[in-house]
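User: I'll paste a sequence; please echo it back and then give the predicted structure.

Assistant: Echoing your sequence first, then the prediction.
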Amino acid sequence: PLTVANPDRVKLKFYSNVLGDNSTFIHYGKWDGIDLDQPGAYGMASEAMTDYMYRLSLGLLTHRAESRDFAYVDLGSGTGASAIHLAEKHSLTISKATCINLCHDQNIIAVERAAERNLSDRIEIVESSFDETPCEANHYDLAFSQDAFIHAVSKEKAYKEAYRITKPGGAFVFCDLVCGDNPDLTVQELAQFAEKNRINDWLNPSQTIKTCKLSGWSDVKFVDLSTDLRISFQLMLRKVSFVLEHGDTGSNSSRVLLMNYRDSICRRITQIERGVFKWGVFHCRKPVVMDLVVKPPVPFEKTNHLILDMADDNDEGCVMETNIVVVDILKKMNKETIEKLPKTVELLITMSAGLDHIDLDACSQNGIVVKNSGRDAITSHVVQYCLSFIIVGLRDALNQLSVPFPSSGWNLNWNCEGKPLTSSTIAIIGLGLISKALIEEIRKIAPEARIIYNTRTRDFDFESKFNLEYISCLNELARQCDVLVPMCALNKQTEDLVSKEVISNLQPHAGIINMARGKVVETDAMTEALQSKAIKYAILDTTYPEPLPKEHPLWSLDNCFIFPHYATNTMAVREALVSEIQPIIEDHYGLGHSDERRKAEEKALRYDLAIAHRLTAKYGMDMLVWNHISARFRTGCLITPGRKMWGRISPEDLVYSSSNVTADVIHDAVYSARPDIKAVIHLHTPAATAISCLQEGFVPITQDGAYFYKKVATYDWDGLSDDASEGPEIAAAIKAVEGCNTLLMHNHGFVCFGPSVRHAWVLAYYFERCCEVQLRVMQSGGKLRTPPKRVMEKAAEDSYLPEFAPGVCEWDALCEEIPHFD
């Protein structure tokens, strides 16, 4: 029997021969910075399009950008070229790529190519239609597709399936051909195009956006890339025309095929220009659904349309599955209640600082994350409240209520039994967030006070910083203190922790202030001690039981002061409990519309980058408008804008996309090789560039050189770094030297990198200085004296002690050298 060629392999070979680049990519490309005349241009543009879409995806999913378990699904994956490219490029973050594709022959090619690159464990090939997949619901961070949905019988069905398998808060990013929306075109002409090209459900951009929304997606946007599509077709036309004119087309039938192909491309270019169809990227997010199961103390005002409320009207008619449950401290979330929650719930927010009303083990077993809203406000209020009670308790102030001024007149000996905070011993049980904040406040106003504490897990750093004394025995803690303040959480281990035995060790002048749960203190034992005057007083913001029965003897004692669990009873706390719900959800899912922290981080990073540019100019290390500094931020990186003198660069000038191809190649390579790196600086300073031209390269011979001892990688520069294929070679050079912080590019310049802008810049300064010293030593003609190996090894180790690491001591002083930005 005759052997029939695999049509998909034939198609790939055809494109490869015509375009002349041997690429496995046949998607339309993105042409920013790519020379159409260079070999392999079409494949590079296709890869660039895949990278562009993935960067856009990570820009939507900032909270998942650096995770090590990122999972995405490629719908209509063809031969798997995009998945293989992304899995190789993002090997540290993409844990699983699932390729959904209906064509059996294409899937065979995908399986073979994944195996060739040892990616079979990370790339799964599933033979299925993209509108009815076998994938688990709510499973993927990202649904991704390139030029596939044009073949869908029903766009809505395809988009709904993508919605079903994407996690709450996940993203859907796809590029596709869509119907044009030029008003000069007739409906008949558009319909004829769709019929001739066998396109079902031919939608224009607005209709596609509407269909995405009907499928459940939110925040749907379209990026028109029709100009890039035209360039792709124009390059195809040039290639085909060249083959017809100069190449060997073989048989007459092959020549006819190429001529038909050329005519078809010409028609496509004309149709793009007339607006018959468009090409671009659609991106959107899957919203999250919140269920407020209790009435909030103040109205909840939601301003993020990616957060849906179960109480909202569902205009689109989509099935809403709860992802977030919001409770308060009165809502008991025991194991049974938690297990009855919908399986789609993954975040539980409690409007409280405490968690003793929630079974945390049950939450963990069911994959539910627990967060507190209003925690900072609660902490601040409880600390202020507790500190005031400590002071008035020590001063015996509460017992002075209604005490009349002495009729014989005031004198120095009257009523002076109180004790100042400064000479008192305060005992604290527990060292959580509120305890630590309380200790910090005490130290501000009473640095001489003695603070002793007991906790299950000591914090030696905090203990040292705030001059605390750890006492392992609670009885001894009680015996030494003037006031005992339980601040621990309530759990099985802390019930009646302040027991009869502990209370019996308190001195007669000592008091108890309970800001923890009432059951932490053994109520009956405390009552007996107060009745017998074995302790001086108790100030209780909580009791057990709560509320305390009217007939309970504590009510009648004149040395017991009971408050109605009042520490957080302010409108400020009530408002914080509710207002922080949305930011918690946004932070958890990366929705980010009101992420003030993100804005503050970006502002600080822009400031450091601008300072670094101006410092480079100030110290004569710049080269007019050339070279570049970048810093990673979330999914992208801020970088030198270009075309501006470095001494004039301000924070707002930094950009997310450089116009300099060389910058992109070098910086992307460093970040790819070292995911731990957050900042990169590339310079052509005179001394370092001179050293890069020497055969022996850089030699660390001074104390400053210890920063670079066995930390300098080298790279044989191969002309202008504007070829994307050079990136992997640069990355390989960096990976070859474990823990390196500098790349010396022979006959070119150097790159320094580190965990922050300040770290990278200070390294660059010292590297240039070390190179200057090396050149001067060489110029002297004297015999070089190199430090012994053991000396350099010890110096290198000491250079990276926390207090001496690059930038730690220098940066603040350097910032003072630069005038404030306007």
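Residues 757-780 form the longest helix (24 residues). The chain has 26 helices and 25 strands.
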